[in-house]
Amino acid sequence: MSTLTTPDEIEYFRLASLKAAVKLEALGMRHSSGLVTPRIRKQLGLRARAPHAEVISLLQSKMDILLSRKALACQE
């Protein structure tokens, strides 16, 4: 188990949990706090009827950016 200490690590975990919630909603399940996808669409500036796959893809690209930023920081 590791501790998330940097803002990038915390943001990565937040994005990963949101991505998992959207995947479950795509399968027909609901999160305990209600529907997550509409809130994520609004946060990301997507149109209201954007498909789940588009939301997941955008979340994954944001996660990839954070990973590449971390990899660059480790190399320095």
Task: Set down the secondary structure blueprint.
Layout (H helix, E strand, L loop, with lengths): L6 H20 L10 H8 L7 H24 L1
Helix pairs in contact: 1-3
Entry keywords:
mainly alpha, 68% helix, 76 residues
Task: Walk me through the structure.
Helices cover 68% and strands 0% of the residues. By secondary structure, it is mostly helical. It has one domain (7-70). The longest helix is centred in the C-terminal third of the chain and has 24 residues, at 52-75. The two termini are 25 Å apart.
SSE order, one letter for each helix or strand: HHH
Count of strand segments: 0
Number of helices: 3
Distance between the termini: 25 Å
The average pLDDT score comes to 90
Q: Tell me the strand percentage band.
A: under 5%
Précis, in short:
The protein has 76 residues and is mainly alpha-helical.
